[in-house]
Amino acid sequence: MLRCAVVGATGYTGMELIKILLRHSGVAIAALTTRQQESIPVHQLIPNLVCKTDLVIRPYTVQELNQAADVVFLCLPHTEAMESAAQFRRAGKTVIDLSADLRLRDAKTYERWYGEKHTQPVLLKHAVYGLPEVNRKRIAQADLIANPGCYPTAAILALYPLVQQKLVDLESIIIDAKSGVSGAGKKAKASTHFCEVTENFSAYKVNSHQHTPEIEQCLSGAAGRKMRVTFTPHLLPLERGILATVYAKRKPSVSPQRILDAFAKSYKNEPFIRLHPKGSFPSLRHVRYTNYCDLGIEADSRSKQVIVIGAIDNLIKGASGQAVQNMNIRFDFPEEEGLN
Ligand SMILES: NC(=O)c1ccc[n+]([C@@H]2O[C@H](COP(=O)([O-])OP(=O)(O)OC[C@H]3O[C@@H](n4cnc5c(N)ncnc54)[C@H](OP(=O)(O)O)[C@@H]3O)[C@@H](O)[C@H]2O)c1
Predict the structure, then answer these.
(1) Which of 2, 4, 57, 204 is the most exposed place for a label (fewest CB within 10 A)?
(2) Three-state SS across 262-282?
């Protein structure tokens, strides 16, 4: 059995990881950590696990964790995760970091968008961006995996075939994305409490969201040139889910059928991508609590816009499910283990 530790297990992504790892036949949960002083029974935090597990979440020392675990999932806020990642890598552990700390290859770009100093720039050279549909071969060899952000997962998967095969004008890309409130984590904030969010719908961080450089970095890799995108996030009055509607101008020489064929071919063997048939589009209800990214494509529009709609559960394919998918690839488990 592969021994797993979840650091930051009381947060939203940590709680989802506990549920997924308990269903996985090849792993044992070796440690669940919190900074809080007292032990917290898992079923107290996740009541639908009552009578299903005696696991507790408690404070651990780094030494205890190094002895207990082979793989460490970091479910910590950004800037908190980088030091932990360095410690666990020094001890030879495989680290899967769900925060943004290791996703950008350039420390200066991180500092510009996150407004904090990057204290572990050397790690950025070794971290592999954990988007299986793009990087599966590298993930299989990686000991430091930077799990993608939730918006980037939905946006990149909706755009990748178009950009990689240069089927659209690369200057024309617009990402209009909407997220449920759990995307902001568990800590209470004025902007995300019930009265602010309920019966409301609004844009935020227009053209300035910190996931922008992550999307651009991955798409630039696909295009083989520097890419810029327009990205507008919105907050939905829902607990979970991301719906990203992306727009790009089809090149005059590219037929609508070629666009559809590109998606079909690129994602033919992907266990967690579901392509909707022509004229049908995804919705959040059908991806909730799943590791699927559902995509619907409209390539025929009079305006020559290609419109792709991508839907994911931000806490599963956008975080903990994708982290387990990465672990499965890295440790040669069936890719869907624990995730169906
Ligand atoms: N939520 C999403 O949809 C999503 C998607 C993709 C990626 N992510 C990323 O994944 C990471 C975890 O996200 P999350 O939504 O699970 O966050 P969260 O709900 O806020 O949980 C983070 C946990 O980290 C622990 N922690 C340790 N040091 C902390 C500190 N200095 N300040 C606050 N908490 C601290 C806390 O546990 P104790 O108080 O018990 O110690 C807390 O429960 C973040 O970096 C986030 O950006 C989140």
Answers:
(1) 204
(2) HHHHHCCCCCCEEECCCCCCC
Task: Determine the distance separating the centroid of ligand 1 and the alpha carbon of 12, expressed in angstroms.
Answer: 7
Residue 237, ligand 1, Cβ within 6 A: no
pLDDT in tens, the chain (340 residues): 999 999 999 999 999 999 999 999 999 999 999 999 999 999 999 999 998 999 999 999 999 999 999 999 999 999 999 999 999 999 999 999 999 999 999 999 999 999 999 999 999 999 999 999 999 999 999 999 999 999 999 999 999 999 999 999 999 999 999 999 999 999 989 989 999 999 999 999 999 999 999 999 999 999 999 999 999 999 999 999 999 999 999 999 999 999 999 999 999 999 999 999 999 999 999 999 999 999 999 998 788 999 999 999 999 999 999 999 999 999 999 999 999 9
CA contacts within 13 A on the Cβ side of 232? 10
Distance, in Å, from the CA atom of 86 to the CA atom of 74, rounded to the nearest integer, reads 11
Residue 130 Cα to chain centre, angstroms: 8
Task: Report how far ligand 1's centroid is from the alpha carbon of 84 (Å).
Answer: 14
Q: What's the gap in Å between 8 CA and the centre of ligand 1?
A: 6
75 is catalytic: no
Q: How far apart are alpha carbons 70 and 141 in whole angstroms?
A: 15
Residue nearest atom 47 of ligand 1, based on CA coordinates = 99
Cα gap 100→78, rounded to integer Å:
6
**What gap in Å lies between CA 202 and CA 188, rounded to an integer?**
18
> Is the beta carbon of 77 within 6 A of some atom in ligand 1?
yes
SS3 176: strand
Q: How far is the C-alpha of 297 from the C-alpha of 304, rounded, in Å?
A: 13
Of the listed 4, 51, 75, 150, which one is catalytic? 150
Tell me the whole-structure pTM to 2 decimals.
0.97
Query: Across the chain, where does the E strand assignment appear?
Result: 2-7, 27-33, 40-41, 56-57, 71-74, 94-97, 128-129, 144-146, 174-179, 202-203, 230-235, 242-249, 273-275, 293-298, 305-312
Is the C-beta atom of 217 inside 6 A of ligand 1?
Answer: no
